[in-house]
Structure formats: structure tokens, C-alpha cells
Amino acid sequence: MHRSTFEHAKDFADKVMVANKFEIYTSELALKLAKSEQVRSFAKQMIADHKQAGQEFEHALEEAAIEPPVEAFDVAYTEKFIELPAFSAEQGFDSSYVSQQLEAHQDAVSTFSEYAARGEIPALKAFATKTLPTLEHHLEMARTLRSRMSH
């Protein structure tokens, strides 16, 4: 089944909105609850970078004449967000946060790579292409942080 250019763009836009909000909200939570200075520093960078990405995303949607998605978490991200403080009792908030950042950025890199390669709406494709290296860097930072925490 072939999806239309608009459906593909809408799907990408929905994923971007949800993922970006998740990054900001969980990172703001990390600033309050994280014990490690490295984790708080990582969270600050996530907030700054994802707020900037959010603004660039809004401009790309405007340029593409696409209605911004409703700012609501989808079910999967809602579950992750609800679980985050609960995990803190078992394995420590810092470890839970970093694990979720690692998983979220693996998903984001996959989503952005796919749209950068196959997206058909120029403004969104340009946004995906421009943002992908930052997300790959975030993924590498999360991997490094995770390996430091497991030692």
C-alpha cells in the first residue's frame, strides 16, 4: 500500500512533535531529579537543542503549509513519561532517564533518516536532513553517558 505524500509528511510531523515534547519534558524533569551533574548537563543540552529544533520544525511546517500536529503525547510516549519517576525508585532516576534518552534518540535517528532519504515535502525533508546530525550526536552522547554509568 502506497501512502500519499501528505500522509507520509503528516506521520513524520506527528512523530517529530511527540518526540520533541518528550525530550523537553523528560529533560526538565531530569534537571529536578537527577543526582549526577553529567546527567543534568546532558538534560540542559537536550532542552536547548530540542527547543531550537521545535522552532525550526514550526517554520518548516509553515513553509510546507502543513497544519501543526496536536501537541499531545501518543500512547507509547505517555507510558514512558509516566514510568520515568516510578523507575527512579528501582534503578535510580539517572539510569532510567539515560536509558530512555538512548531509546528515544535511536527512534528519532531512524525516523529522521527515513524522511531525509524518502520525504517528498522539500521543507520537511530539509528540516530532517539538517536536524539528523544533531540527533546522531545526542544518541552518541547518550551512549557515552550510559557506558560511564555502567562502570
List the helices and strands and how they pair.
Blueprint (H helix, E strand, L loop, with lengths): L4 H29 L3 H28 L10 H17 L1 H26 L3 H28 L2
**Assembly state (oligomeric):** single chain
N-to-C span: 47 Å
Number of strands: 0
Taking the sheet with the most strands, its summary is:
none
CATH architecture: Up-down Bundle
The computed structural class is: mainly alpha
**Total count of helical runs of at least 4 residues:** 5
CATH fold label = Ferritin
Mean pLDDT: 86
Proportion of helical residues? over 70%
Rg for CA atoms:
16 Å
- How much β-strand is present in the residues? under 5%
Shape: elongated
Give the SSE string: HHHHH
Number of domains: 1
Descriptive tags:
Ferritin, 0% strand
Tell me what the structure shows.
The protein is an all-alpha fold and 151 residues long. It has a single domain, classed as Ferritin. Helices cover 85% and strands 0% of the residues. The protein has helices at residues 5-33, 37-64, 75-91, 93-118, 122-149. It starts with a helix and ends with a helix. The model has no long low-confidence stretch (mean pLDDT 86).
Brief write-up:
Helices cover 85% and strands 0% of the residues.
